[in-house]
Structure formats: C-alpha cells, structure tokens
Amino acid sequence: MIKRRTTPELARLRQRIARLDGDSIDQLYGLEPVWEPGTGPRLAPEEFVAVLCPYCGERLETRVDLTADEPSYVEDCEVCCRPIEFHIERDQGGALVALQAQRID
Questions:
Q1: Do residues 52 and 24 share a domain?
Q2: Which candidate, 100, 46, 45, places its Cα nearest to that of 75?
Q3: Closest to 45 in 3D by CA, of 73, 62, 61, 65
Q4: 18: in domain
Q5: What pLDDT, on the 0 to 100 scale, is given for residue 19?
Q6: Which parts of the chain register pLDDT below 50?
Q7: The pLDDT value given to residue 82
Q8: Residue 1 domain-assigned?
Q9: Mapped to the 3 state alphabet, what secondary structure does 68-79 carry?
Q10: 86: exposed, middle or buried (C-beta count within 10 Å: 0-12, 13-18, 19+)?
Q11: Based on the domain organization, do 90 and 56 belong to the same domain?
Q12: Residue 2 has what pLDDT?
C-alpha cells in the first residue's frame, strides 16, 4: 500500500472547503461581506405609509425609501394629481418616526 503525502497547502484548502459557512465562502472566492437577511438590525429598507392628501383629503399610500439620504420628496396625489411634499423624520438608527405631508403652494 502506497501512502500519499498531503501538502500543507492542500490540507489548508480542504479545511477551508469543508467549512461551508458564509464567511469562509466569501473568503475563498474573494467576496466582500454583504448584508444577509435575518442578520443584524431588522430595519426595513422601505415602508408603506397611509396619509391624507392635503388638497383633496383622500387617503393614499406612499412608499418611504429609508435608504435615501434626502429628508423630503415630492409625489403626486393619485386622486387629484397635485404635488405633495413629504418630509421624513427618522431616529438615530434610521427607522421611520414620522412622515408629514404638506401642500406645495
């Protein structure tokens, strides 16, 4: 029976491949770590919020992008088509605290 010698490099590679966690796969393929669902803070990237149109009073839902750096944005009312300015208020962690809708006059 012939015994093969395993080189240290091959042994290290086999150990790295045997560990199939996310960090070792990223390291093996040279990938940068990314956010994985279910890890870290549970902050949604967007929220849908119901507001009243300041012009016609109709209820509408708007999508608030919590990843945007802008504290306000403009969106037209789905009913009367007039522009509404939305001001976003966030806490220290980036979560939505308040959304104000006002007329642009």
A1: no
A2: 100
A3: 65
A4: yes
A5: 63
A6: none
A7: 95
A8: no
A9: CCCCEEEEECCC
A10: middle
A11: yes
A12: 63
